[in-house]
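Milestone M4 deliverable, item 7.
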Amino acid sequence: MNKYNVGRIGLGIFYLVACFFNLFHTINNAHYIWIVCLENAHFSFYKEFLIQIVIPNEKLIILLVVVFEFIVGMLILSKEIYVKVGLTLAILWVLLIAPFLPLIDILGHITLGGLQALLLMGNYDTTLLELIKSKI
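Output delivered:
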């Protein structure tokens, strides 16, 4: 298995774990997360977006994030163009949430985005399940 496959499998599993973490933990503690986002929003229109749209609908927003992360994870674990679509969505996600994060987290997200961009160079002819079946 090449390094691109290892990376994309790890990333796909990461998104699925994040999805379930957000479903079972974050949804019950969303208010604290929005406070951190408000304190760290780097532009006033981001703060207004949080105050006017996100916070009043926090449970719905978390559920949308859960669905998004699940879809991205499954796309990344699939094959061919679906992997590239999943990686592209993952990069856009990192860019979207970065302005709401503390500086140290922004640096981590930029690194994650760069790694995801590197994975776009790989060729993915098999799904995770096909890789597992070929090893059994």
